[in-house]
Amino acid sequence: MNALAARFNAIFGADMAGPLAALAAVLVVFGFASPHFLTGATFGSVAFQLPELGVLTLAMLMPILTGGLNLAITFTANIAGLTLAWTLQANGGIDAGPGAFLLGSALALAVGAASGLVMGLVIAFTRAHPILVSLSMMIFLRGLGEFLTRGGDISGFPTFVAPIGHGSILGIPVPLLILIACVIASHVLLSRSKLGFSTYMIGSNIESARYSGINTRKVLVLVYMLSGVMAAVAGIIMLARFNSVRVGHGESYLLITVLACFLGGINPFGGFGRVLPVFVALIVLQLLSSGLNLLGANQHLTTAVWGILLIVVMVLRWFSAKFIRIVK
Hints:
This is Sugar ABC transporter permease. The protein is mostly helical.
């Protein structure tokens, strides 16, 4: 048994055991509970619904690895989406061309980066707690968005935008391809770059990282800027998927991004965790949502189950850590 566990850890990593076990449990339980669960329709639905949540989770991941948090990701995504929508509206609306879309997308990414830049600067130079800083940014972006849109939404975009949210290439959904590209980029960044190494160092011990010669302020600013850019990508996907933008789209995703990170083995205090287990955890949560929908549960019950699952995950991790200490 120990040899098997060691081989599994060598191939997949110890942090993959929990997400893979949860994936197997969801497939078995809902496979028996509903005859329609293990079908192409279910997995096709998951493939289209997963990307915006997945990209938002990646936006949450890097700040958590530094020991922080970005509570503003969903409203950063909305403001970025609104920036793209306003650009398209200013250039003809449904008659806008690809050039206007590229310009709007670049501006949306810039808005996301600016949001992260402000948070990163405040956190890095004032040492204010990331929860308070990102909460303040969330309130600001929400209020700004409500003021500019008067609580309404913006819709009516060119037809070539729709495939970004609903199209497929060789049978693979376009938004899923975008998510996979973001997962690969995040994995490479965290595992193969100096910024990734510095991110883990800061999450482990920011003072030790500073004494080791790491420019912790620069790293924190870059981490939150990248978080904002990733949130903006999610905003572009949501615009294409819903064919409209308003403040509040995806607001319930905030809880799920934190849950996915913890279910994927990310240390809530920073310094430890990988992208791939988080990606598997995202699939588990989306399959859980689809399974509950097939059983007739409404979205409110699904959200409640996610909240309970977050508590269960924290308790199980505490028991696991205590068991490991006893064994040692």
